[in-house]
Amino acid sequence: MEIKTIKKTSKELEIEITGETETILNPITEVLLNYKEVDYASYMADHPESRSRRLYLRVTSGKPIDILKKAVKHLQDEIKTFSKDFDSKTKSKK
Predict the structure, then answer these.
(1) Residue 17 has what DSSP assignment?
(2) 3-class secondary-structure state, position 2
(3) pLDDT exceeding 90 applies to what percent of the chain?
(4) I want to staple 58 with a disulfide (CB 3.0 to 4.6 A). Which of 15, 40, 41, 77 is the partner?
(5) Whole-angstrom Cα distance, residue 72 to residue 45?
(6) 2-88 maps to which CATH number?
(7) Residues 40, 58: contact at Cβ < 8 Å?
(8) Which residues, 6 or more positions from 67, have their beta carbon under 8 angstroms from its beta carbon?
């Protein structure tokens, strides 16, 4: 995965991600849209077969990069919790 900053201002962040698809960008966008400080969040591709996607984020307060990091951390925590719950529920009873 490659990440390239396209636009970075005090209220906006646009990054290009190469080598990833909607599989990761959709959950990130969904989490971002649940934050009150996020005005707009979306991802897009120039073409469906393109290997590059762009993630765009606009905030009303705070730094966009910090809010994006918060969203990624939230998803990491969610996956860890799911993994632990899944392991405990699927262990064979002895």
Answers:
(1) E
(2) strand
(3) 70
(4) 40
(5) 20
(6) 3.30.1360.10
(7) yes
(8) 32, 35, 37, 38, 57, 59
pLDDT over 60 (residue 63): yes
More confident residue, 74 or 1: 74
Domain ranges of the chain: 2-88
> What are the respective helix, strand and coil percentages of the chain, to the nearest 5?
40, 30, 30
Report angle CA 34, 35, 40 to the nearest 5 degrees: 85
What band does 89 get if pLDDT is binned at 50, 70 and 90?
Answer: confident
Facing residues of 15 across strands?
5, 55
* Residue whose entry in the numeric block shows the structure tokens 């209220």: 11
Which residues, at least 6 apart from 11, have a Cβ–Cβ distance to it below 8 Å?
39, 58, 59, 60, 64
Rg for the chain, CA atoms, rounded = 16
